[in-house]
Specification:
single chain, alpha/beta, Amidase signature (AS) enzymes, 2 domains, 11-stranded mixed beta sheet, 17 helices, 11 strands, 38% helix, binds glutamine
């Protein structure tokens, strides 16, 4: 097996046993990026020299016998709305095309401290507003399973990079689905943590009451390892939760026996692609065969999640993006007066989707007509939260599809914003409720496109999500790599793997 085909956990074991050096690992991924990146366009900035330097430093420390984190030497890519000191951070916008932050986001600081070499910054929808990575000012990213299709968004570059084995680990951000939806469309595992679990410090703000940073990985075990590095209290983020961080890896092996799973009926609606419905149902049947108890549940107010999300999200975006005025950051277009300069800068610096949200949000925050929508949306958000509190009295976790359909063709929804927004119909409500939510691959469509199962847990129960996703990997034989990335198998219809508890050995010897 090639180094680039390995999971982060496998690489970490080889590195710890000194069977391979960090420089060798990083070199393998640099070559891989060189081979596939021209077709996939996952990165906005590629930093091979910096990554090699960081790898050399890790190798020197290991050689001297200094204590190292388990992921030291395992490379990572970072979504380009997460600040990296000295490294361009563009938000895929013309506004910030040349912006170099003076400081690291807390998540990035923690990764650097743990010795993870940074291979580059990944493409996204402009300011993380979108579901296909097509609103990037620079170029769209392609889905490694089918180059004519989108990787999802807004963390499309991160998802495609992990799927195509350009990097074993990626950081994404999720405001209303931007980690989970691209994870589903690219066949990787993506976690939106509990709001406040991972510091937002240094994440360029879109909608502050919804924004989160989270891991995108090939497997649940990698997600658990990665999450252990970035989770935790941060005094620099006033919404950060001051709660102990559990050992997510320890929880992985628990299996699913006795777990009560609520199948959310709104997340398997009749109008969804029948192949999505079949794959999700089959995954739940397999969990049932392994001892979980699955029953249907309804989250009735999620019918309103789309309008509620677009009202709250746009209002917060309009307010947050007010800082891009041509004075303080990034682009400045010429103008005879400060007003002219600022309006030219904002008019030319932002693309159409970002402008749409700023205009909508500005209206919603105006004190006459718009404001009542905003107040109403906040009230409905409270009802959505209440639905979860009710459901979690009966269930340990909730499940359903991550997206109504597999990956769509590039260009097919760019002129239809509502159709684009609808692709997040299953991911918005968890975001509004602030609960942790994970997408795990659960099969392929007839045309070979990945399908995602979404699992939702009560606040701070990320470990439970990794545990169920880990079990699912054992029984389904996921994850698989796209044909372009070679290696990997998926079960044929009717084939069964032994129950997950029999296959748990692999992790414990690490
Ligand atoms: N697609 C959703 C939007 O456009 C969610 C984006 C996100 O989570 N960053 O707002």
């Amino acid at each position: 097996m090639e180094l680039f085909e390995m999971t982060a956990l496998e690489l970490s074991r080889l590195l710890q046993k000194k069977e391979v050096s960090a420089v060798e690992v990083v070199t393998a991924f640099i070559k891989r990026i060189g081979a596939l990146e021209p077709r996939l366009k996952t990165l906005l900035t590629f930093t091979p020299a910096g990554a090699l330097q960081e790898a050399e430093a890790v190798d020197r420390k290991r050689h001297r016998g200094e204590p190292l984190s388990p992921l030291a030497g395992v490379p990572v890519v970072i979504k380009d709305n997460i600040s990296t000191a000295g490294l361009r951070t563009t938000c895929a916008s013309r506004m910030l095309a040349n912006y170099i932050p003076p400081y690291d986001a807390t998540a990035v600081r923690l990764l650097r401290k743990a010795g993870l070499p940074i291979l580059g910054k990944t493409n996204l929808d402009e300011f993380a507003m979108g579901s296909s990575t097509e609103s990037s000012y620079f170029y769209p990213t392609r889905n490694p399973w089918d180059l004519d299709r989108v990787p999802g968004g807004s963390s499309g570059g991160s998802a495609a990079a992990v799927a195509a084995a350009l990097a074993p680990l990626a950081l994404g951000s999720d405001t209303g689905g931007s980690i989970r939806q691209p994870a589903a469309l690219c066949g990787v595992t993506g976690l939106r943590p509990t709001y406040g679990r991972v510091s937002r410090y240094g994440l360029i703000a879109f909608a502050s009451s919804l924004d989160t940073i989270g891991p995108m990985t090939l497997t649940a075990a990698d997600g658990a390892l990665f999450m252990g590095l970035i989770a935790g209290y941060d005094p620099l983020d006033p919404t950060s939760l001051n709660e102990p961080v559990p050992d997510y890896c320890r929880e992985l092996e628990g299996g699913v026996r006795g777990l009560r799973i609520g199948l959310v009926k709104e997340r398997l609606a009749a109008e969804f692609d029948p192949q999505v419905i079949t794959a999700v149902r089959r995954a739940l049947e397999l969990l049932q065969e392994n001892g979980a108890v699955v029953e249907e549940v309804s989250l009735p107010h999620t019918a309103y999640s789309l309008p509620v999300y677009y009202v709250i999200g746009s209002a917060e975006a309009a307010s947050n993006l007010g800082r891009f005025d041509g004075v303080r950051f990034g682009l400045r277009e010429p103008g005879a007066s400060i007003t002219e300069m600022s309006s030219a800068t904002r008019g030319r610096g932002f693309g159409p989707e970002v402008r749409r949200r700023i205009m909508l949000g500005t209206y919603l925050l105006s004190d006459d007509s718009g404001h009542r929508y905003y107040v109403q949306a906040q009230k409905v958000r409270a009802l959505i939260r209440q639905d979860y509190e009710n459901a979690f009295q009966r269930f340990d976790l909730l499940a359903g599809a991550t997206t109504p359909d597999p990956a769509f063709k590039l260009g097919s929804k760019t002129d239809q914003p509502l159709e684009m927004y609808r692709t997040d119909i299953c991911t918005l409500d968890d975001a509004l409720a602030g609960v942790p939510s994970l997408s795990a691959p659960c099969g392929l469509s007839a045309s070979g496109l990945p399908i995602g199962l979404q699992l939702t847990a009560p606040p701070l129960r990320e470990g439970l999500l990794f545990r169920v996703a880990h079990c699912l990997e054992q029984v389904l034989g996921t994850p698989v790599r796209p044909p372009l990335a070679a290696a990997g198998t998926i079960l044929r219809e009717g084939e069964r793997r032994p129950p997950c508890s029999h296959r748990m050995g692999a992790l414990s010897d690490g």
